[in-house]
Amino acid sequence: MVADLGCGPGFFTLALAECVRTERRAYAVDMDEKAIQALEKKADKRGYHSIEAHVSSAHNLNFIKDRSVDFILADGLLCSMAPQQHEAVVEEMKRILKPNGLIYLKVARGPRSYMKKAEWD
Ligand SMILES: C[S@@+](CC[C@H](N)C(=O)[O-])C[C@H]1O[C@@H](n2cnc3c(N)ncnc32)[C@H](O)[C@@H]1O
Known about the structure:
26% strand, single chain, alpha/beta, Rossmann fold, 5 strands
């Protein structure tokens, strides 16, 4: 199972779906409904049925079970939200990640990009 948090229109989700194919689910989460609609359209066109897309904030992933995800991608997510919201999102990532799972976190330069050491840890 993989999860693309703050997936936007799904540039990376489609690549992830290609990796996991049909055996595993690829969750795609974004609070922007239009981005999710664009992703669903592309996924449909390309036949990626493993993608499960949700319009939701990344600090509420109650549709994903505890310790069920092998890989989380969060490219440009944390720097798109207020720093005081980071902790809740990081907690959700920790909740859904399997014990040996991996997270790829990337933040762009900008006024919201500062992350505490504990968040990186
Ligand atoms: C810079 S874009 C990155 C999109 C995509 N990950 C990529 O790299 O192409 C950031 C995305 O995060 C989404 N976003 C911002 N705050 C969010 C939140 N609290 N929960 C989920 N998505 C959020 C935005 O709607 C936007 O699509």
